[in-house]
Amino acid sequence: MAAIHEAEMKKAFPEHDTSSDEHVADGIHDGLQFPSEEERLSLRRVSDTIPWAAYLIAIVEMAERFSYYGSTVVFTNFIQQPLPDGSNTGAGGADGQSGALGRGLQTSTGLTTFYQFWAYLTPILGGYLADTYWGRYNTICVAIGVAFIGHIVLIVSAIPSVVVHSNNSLAAFIIGMLITGLGTGLFKSNISTLIAEQYKRRKLFVVTTKDGERVIVDPTYTVSRMYMYFYLFTNIGALIGQITMTYAEKASIYVGFYLAFTLPTVVFLICPVVMFLGRNYYNRTPPTGSVTITAFRLWLFASGGRWSWNPFRTWKNMKADDFWENAKPSKQQTRPHWMSFDDQWVDEVRRGIKACGVFVWYPIYWLSYNQLNNNLTSQAATMSTHGLPNDILSNLDPLALIIFIPIFDAFLYPALKRMHINFSALKKITAGFATGAAAMVWASVVQHYIYKTSPCGDQANSLDCEAVSPLNVWIQTGSYVLIAFSEIFASITGLEYAFTKAPKNMRSLVMAMYLVTNAFGAALSEAFLPLLVDPLLTWNYGAVAIIAAVGGTAFWISIRKLDAQEDQLNNLAEGHMVTPGSTDREKV
């Protein structure tokens, strides 16, 4: 019966019948030379050329990140610090401390952490709308409109006539955060998927270099490079936005936070312009209906008969080797009406769910990363800045990324490949946990010496403390550089992993599942609010370092077997299904 059904599937989907020819003509891979099994194992792998349309999308991301970070970099001071005497703009002048609402460190960290949680929770909605109804391009356009409205509300919260009334300003500010965060979420789940979709090849092929070396062009490596440079553009936007806006809030008694919120809004207008100009050049994947529900039905079908009152037995049954195999259409004597897909699509869903299992560990990583723009900014305010704004130091992170991303891409990663060291995606993520933990160790040591040298002792963050530690603020550099390394290893690789492991018609949703881990990381950070008071800040950084180190170790132990299957998972054949409400075959 299974053989008969397999024959029926091949008849229904003839373009997927690879029994006679693994590489059928598709207009994308025509004329290429594909590697033998021996060549797969022996030849060095390289990336392909990045399509120019991807750079246009990266420019959109750069402008959006300028507006996002250009605004959020001043959130901490806007909320935490009081309005300077005689100011109705919040500007601190050449030597003063900029501020507006005067709500303290805990409220500042609580609100900025909530904003991060909200901005990274809403990608789930963006991913669902794109995959199911609107498509990625249209969803991004809607997101840009929503975020623009949010930016306008933020400007209103900081104009002089509003900011002098603390409660009114706070209310408008929170509304602006909610609207902007919604737009950001709709945008983030789709822009990072759209850029990788500009590269259409999905199969390994062999080329000969100018030096006469035969190498394998690996689409996974190409996607990895695309995300490296996508992240580079992201941090160029973040760096310019943060530096510009940090000085805008401090520039003079006449220029303050309203300018720091207005300039990012102006730059943000680049986004709709570039999206419109490139509309006919982007590779745009149309929505395919509610395949998420189909995938959920598949999981329920596969889990049938595997539940038990014994949790251990249930877990063992769900992890069994035949869990997905027995749910494939070719194994069914009577196929349910909703099973409008082939065996390969089941394999893709299995791979996507495994990727989501990897993402479960990410909130622990984000816990260390999230110290960047909140607590480390406040830590800088308790040291000698020598005239620098305290929130300027956070720019060491994007600056380090701009410097080291090309170094990693041009030297480190190719050197590892030449030495046949398989620094796989999951190994990179593990390294991200380790460097994130090291960054927090550095911050904990710095905090210890702040308490030791501050005139206010272990009350260095008190609003009543008007003196600062003689320690030079630049000793924070180690924390920022180590966090940048952790982003290259964990954050960039997470984008790559989400794209390459998701079924084609669920890419935005799986990308959203990766991004939402940042929201859970922010929620986890909220649990540390009781430690964000003097004299417990040393314990805050130390505890985060320990959690990141232990979490990274547990992460590797749990996924080391999956790491061995990396190449196999990357080279799965694409599945086919009939989308809801259609009789046409869709390659997904």
UniProtKB/TrEMBL annotation:
One of its GO terms (cellular component) is plasma membrane. Residues 1-28 are annotated as: Disordered. Coiled coil: none annotated. It is found in: Membrane. GO terms for molecular function: dipeptide transmembrane transporter activity. PANTHER family: OLIGOPEPTIDE TRANSPORTER-RELATED. This is PTR2-domain-containing protein. It comes from Dendrothele bispora (strain CBS 962.96).
